[in-house]
Amino acid sequence: MNLELALRMCEAAVRQAAREGALISVAVVDAGGHLVAFQRMDGARIAGPALAAAKAYTAVAHHMPTADLAPLAVPGGELYGLAGDRYVCSGGGVPLTGLGGEGQVRGAIGVSGGNVRQDVACAEAAAALHEGR
Amino acid sequence: MNLELALRMCEAAVRQAAREGALISVAVVDAGGHLVAFQRMDGARIAGPALAAAKAYTAVAHHMPTADLAPLAVPGGELYGLAGDRYVCSGGGVPLTGLGGEGQVRGAIGVSGGNVRQDVACAEAAAALHEGR
Amino acid sequence: MNLELALRMCEAAVRQAAREGALISVAVVDAGGHLVAFQRMDGARIAGPALAAAKAYTAVAHHMPTADLAPLAVPGGELYGLAGDRYVCSGGGVPLTGLGGEGQVRGAIGVSGGNVRQDVACAEAAAALHEGR
Amino acid sequence: MNLELALRMCEAAVRQAAREGALISVAVVDAGGHLVAFQRMDGARIAGPALAAAKAYTAVAHHMPTADLAPLAVPGGELYGLAGDRYVCSGGGVPLTGLGGEGQVRGAIGVSGGNVRQDVACAEAAAALHEGR
Asked: Which chains touch A (3 or more CB pairs under 8 A)?
């Protein structure tokens, strides 16, 4: 992960949000879950900084999209009870991996502000820039 | 948001609570979620200061009434797992918007102490004072 | 402590702040350290809600003015290391006691926003309303 | 505060850091202390996201540069003991005010990663873009 790529991923997420008619916050974190870049669109909710960063952290921490974690977090699921400032188990967090699928996780994107489908679409638009690197 | 209006909103919530036979705490926060005014009725629970302020914060952070967030916070819902000091997803938090529906969120009211229906009624009585401003 | 008295104490603090040319936040807590009333003047810093409430909590928790705690909190002092969201050991927190000096602590006032001298003056103006009750 | 301006302020801070030979993180927050934009230079410490955001929050919460808060935070000073996730009282946080000196605080910049002089220089380079707006 580097700042130049992180900025272009943020911009891609924001462009997708504009297409979706959503107002989002987008966070890019490195392999350690630490913020590299963050952008909040004008008019987007103040919940965004915490939630977008938490989704990105959660995705990189578990090496999977937060949308896939959601079913594990329901009562009886294996992540039930996980909570705290940095865990958000709803869609919009996407890990960034190297080429070949099995690659190392190099960071993650987190998007918050639209509905879950919109957040996921924005995160995936950003992640697409990372693929193949 | 200003103190004079915030105080009148608190008083309106307390008057409504008296009509309802409820003992409440009421918090008014600004657009950043920071407290402007707070009042706890005599005999109201000591949980009120934390819960009323958290409902107001949650409403302003998400730009929607906390009553609307409650169904999203159930297991499997898109806000499931949201937790922390400042999040309460049950009724009684109401955002305050400017004229015209599309207006900016200028703050929020949070009420805690009665049952959910009573908390919502008190918050709405307070919010009514803000409308049209 | 009751709401009606707490409100009058807040108003007394705000009036004193206006005389001082300060913009303050004022918190009144009960004997358990829980908020009864809070007011933030227009233009006062957003640090006020946390700091005024923390000063009031600290004053009631230690049964002494926060100004007197400050020297105990320096390195080597007996409260050195006390820290956290709810502890503030600078002037502006004043406990409220019953008649006769030895009386029970019934709550506290906390003021933040001016300089220390102003904060103390505002808190004492509010506390004066409580004396003799 | 808006995203376009916040991004240009981040870029100005990063350019100044390059001139200084420092590797920094820079955060821009709105008047409520909530993140609008954040950038971490390649190679900058992972402490940056927390510290830059905390400096920006502290500057906006207290309406003053964090460099001016530092002397107040020493043992015996009036802010001594202030602590927590969101408070950092060393140089590098600068509030952003409107025209005319008496203007409202509209947000803040926080920079972390260089030495204090470098952090302040980067924050001021960013703040210069805001002046006159």
From this structure: B, D
